[in-house]
Amino acid sequence: MFRIHRHQEPQPGQSRTVRFEGRELGGPVSFFLVDAEPGRGSALHVHPYSETWVVRKGQAEFTVGDDKTRAFPEDIVVAAANVPHRFVNVGDDRLELVCIHPSDRIVQEPA
To answer: Can you give the pTM of this predicted structure?
Structure first.
């Protein structure tokens, strides 16, 4: 048996980022499919589990604790659990990345 979450085009002015929580379809993993304009990203936040990012397109600067790094297409970045982190699109084009949460729901607190 399988379940499927169908893609829906965003309305004008609506975020292009897709939030998926595995519990909605009985899965153990959640994620964001990020599609962000230059200069956009996430606010500083923390999770009780590690977060893994897969950069698909563009350039991102990741802040994890006191450290910063840049990542490019096909790079994979992992932040440890309970460490404040964020990302921002530092390129000239759209940033596409997958933010993987090893939980059936996204648990996120501001840092």
So the answer is: 0.89
Q: DSSP readout, the chain?
A: --------PPPTTS---EEE-GGGGT-S-EEEEEEE-TT-BPPSEE-SS-EEEEEEES-EEEEETTEEEEE-TT-EEEE-TT--EEEEE-SSS-EEEEEEESSSS---EE-
pLDDT in tens, 68-108: 999 999 999 999 999 999 999 999 999 999 999 999 999 99
Structural domains of the chain ordered from first start: 32-110 (2.60.120.10)
Angle at 55 between CA 10 and CA 8, to 5 degrees: 15
